Structure formats: structure tokens, C-alpha cells
Amino acid sequence: MTRANASGVKMAELFDPEPITWGLRGDPHVWRALRDHLSETYVPASVDEAVSLVRVAFSELVGVDLVTHAEPWVRRDQFAHGGMSSGGVSLNEWRERLLPLLTERARVLLES
Do residues 25 and 75 make contact, with C-beta atoms less than 8 angstroms apart? Predict the structure, then answer.
């Protein structure tokens, strides 16, 4: 059992605190949906496994694979909460900043 699992740390811990800035208006809603989706899942033994869990959950919730989907953004009604660009999810923001942020948080957690 890893230290993270031994201490009972759940994946939701990686999502706190939220970033201050986002790519598109749907991104914070995706962030919260991922946190909720993974809230009962323990942080796995490796960073790669943690990132894989996030990627799979992202694919399930947003309906696209961050690795294989080439578009820079998608619109999803379930993440639309008002405004002209509501529901926009910046795949580039997730690839370039948000997933790396979660990856680093997992690394720090597992190394502590």
C-alpha cells in the first residue's frame, strides 16, 4: 500500500485549490465535475496511474480524448451555465496547463 493510500488520500485532493484562471467558461465546470467524479477514488501508487484516471474521467465526462482529439476546444451543453461562450471547454488549456497542474500535484502528494 502506498503512503497516499495508507493515509486515505482521495483524488479529489488534487483539485484543491482551483486555478484562478481558465481557458473557456466551461473549464471550471469540467474541473468540478472531475473532482466530484473522482471524489471516492484513492490516489493510486504512481503519478502515471493518477494522470490516467484523470484522462479517462475527462473522456467520460467531456466525450473526447485529450491525446487523440485534435481540436483546440469543444462545446458541451452540460457545462453551459450562461454567457455567449458558455459550455466551451478548452482542450488546449487542459493539455497545456490544467492536466500538467494535476500531474504536478499528484507528484508532490506521492513524494511526500
Answer: no
The whole-number pLDDT of residue 6 equals 42
pLDDT at 81: 78
Mean of the per-residue pLDDT values for the chain?
A: 91
The grid coordinates of residue 2 equal 502506498
Domain range enclosing 94: 3-111
Q: Given its phi and psi angles, is residue 63 left (phi above 0), alpha (psi -120 to 50 degrees) or beta? A: left
Look at residue 70 in the predicted model and tell me its pLDDT.
94
**Which set of grid coordinates corresponds to residue 17?**
485549490
Q: What are phi and psi of 49, to 5 degrees?
A: -65, -40
CA distance 89 to 77: 10
The total of structural domains in the chain comes to 1
